[in-house]
């Protein structure tokens, strides 16, 4: 069994435990060489990468460089990807539309706003005015397509990795944080499912009480769920999230707090 850390995008502090999406995969994990091999990215684009530190990750340097390569690959694929791959991409988008539409719009808007949290966007976007959302979808169609392409590549590569491992008798154990970040597509899309006031400020946050390791306890800052409202919907969000997690793993570990985790 190979146990992994969460494969979601990183959030504040470069941590996947403050993930901006409970459903999306990390773009940092998308290997670039396969994109070259498939003719979507020029070999020269990755031939001479910057001299990144081999022992520690400088996210502030790595992320912009990698995203430029991913954008180039997306442009190459969307312009001249073969019909079979284009059809596979379309089928995947239809299958994952339940979370993908919100994630690509959130990610594109966050890029457009220079990384600002969603509650600092224009009021009409914060309150998800239908006309404002429609305009944003049209304005950011190219950027949304890029984010969708990256997610498709992530899923394709994770599926290949899992198949490779399973063929050799290795199971993948995924790690799913029980909480999401306040600044996430999940909270922006459904603020009613979290403990917030009318100004979208958190009224309660996640953490742990004092113990032998941290005498003062820990304040994680993640929003807490409105379990009553989730129950009214048959916990549909959780069902979808667990199903999505099992697309990448054979066994699932749900992190609750230090010293406790559930295994599925």
Layout: helices, strands, pairs:
Blueprint: E1 2-3, H1 33-37, H2 44-47, H3 59-80, H4 83-95, H5 97-112, H6 123-126, H7 130-139, H8 141-167, E2 172-177, H9 185-189, E3 205-208, E4 218-223, H10 227-232, H11 236-245, E5 251-257, E6 260-263
Parallel strand pairs: 1-2, 2-5
Antiparallel strand pairs: 3-4, 5-6
Helix pairs in contact: 3-8, 5-8
Describe the structure.
The chain has 264 residues and is α/β, with parallel strands linked by helices. The chain is 46% helix and 11% strand. A 4-stranded mixed beta sheet has the order 1-2-5-6. The protein has a two-stranded antiparallel sheet with strand order 3-4. α3 (59-80) crosses α8 (141-167) and α5 crosses α8.
Strand content: 5-15%
* Class based on secondary structure composition and strand pairing: alpha/beta
The whole-number mean of residue pLDDT values reads 93
**Count of runs of 4 or more consecutive helical residues:** 11
Residue ranges: pLDDT <50 for 5 or more in a row? 257-264
- Major sheet: size, sense and barrel closure? 4 strands, mixed
How many extended strands? 6
Cα(first) to Cα(last) distance is 14 Å
Radius of gyration: 19 Å
User: What is the overall silhouette?
Assistant: globular
- Spatial ordering of strands, largest sheet: 1-2-5-6
Q: How much helical structure, as a percent, in the residues?
A: 40-55%
Element-by-element helix/strand order: EHHHHHHHHEHEEHHEE
